[in-house]
Design goal:
This protein is 39% helix and 14% strand. By secondary structure, it is α/β, with parallel strands linked by helices. The strands form 2 sheets. Strands 1-9-6-2-5-3-4 form a 7-stranded mixed β-sheet, with helices on both faces. It has a two-stranded antiparallel sheet with strand order 7-8. The chain has 8 helices and 9 strands. 36% of the residues are buried. It is globular. The chain has helices at 7-24, 51-64, 82-88, 96-104, 115-119, 136-144, 166-175, 214-232, and strands at 27-29, 40-44, 69-72, 91-93, 108-111, 148-152, 161-162, 182-183, 197-200. Helix 3 (82-88) links the parallel strand 3 (69-72) and strand 4 (91-93).
Length: 235
Amino acid sequence: MAHAIPPAVETFGRIVLGPLRRYHRFRCEGLHHVPDAGPAMVLLHHSLATYDAFFIGQEILETCGRQPLGLGDDNLFKVPGVKQLCWSLGIRPARPTTGEEVLADGDLLMLAPGGTREALRPSTQRYRPLWYDRFGWARLAIKMQVPVLVAGCPAGDDIYRVYDSQLTRSVYRRTRWPLPIARGLGPTAIPRPVKLTGYIGAPLVPPKASPDDDQALRAFHRAGVDAMTQLLAQP
C-alpha cells in the first residue's frame, strides 16, 4: 500500500541525499518493475559508500509512492542516536522474523544480502555480488511467495578505491565492525564524483516449494546471484 512520506525520511532525503544525488547526477531505470501494491523483496548491491542504495529507495518512494522498509546491520542499533535515526528512516534489525512481518503487511522489503562483508571487499572484486553463502533472502522469498527484484548502482563501487587489507578482515572477523582502508577523490575521503545510475531488475518469481527444499533453494539463489551479476555489468 502507498505511504505518505514520513517527516524524518523527507528531511533526510532533502538535506543529506539531495546534494549527493546532484553531485553524482543520479538517475534510476527500471522503476516500472516495482509492483503498485503487495509485498515484494528488493535485493541491493552493497557498495562501501552505501548511500547509493538509499538513492534507489528514495526514488521508489517518490516515484512509485511506496516506502521500502530495510533491514540493517545489527551494529547500527548498538550506537545511540544512530539506532533512533535508523528506526525513523524505516530501517529495522536484520532478523528473519522482521522480514516476514514486513512482507506479511504487504510492504516492500529492502535488504543487501552481502552486507558489510560485501561493502568491505577490495576494488579488485568490484562489480560482483558476495552472496555465495547467503541463502536467507531466497528462503524467505520462497516461504512468503513474494517476487524478488535485484537493484543497485554498478558505479557505486567506483566511489571509493578499497584496498585489500588483512587489518580490515581481522577487525571485521573479530568484531563485525568495518575498518576499511580506502580513499576517494585523490588521497581524501571525499567521494569521487562518478555518475550513478540505479537499476531495478525484472521480478524473479520464487518456486512453489518448501523453503527447506535444498534443490529449489539453491536454484533460486543462483537465479538471484546471476541477475545481480548481470545488473552490475551494466555501465
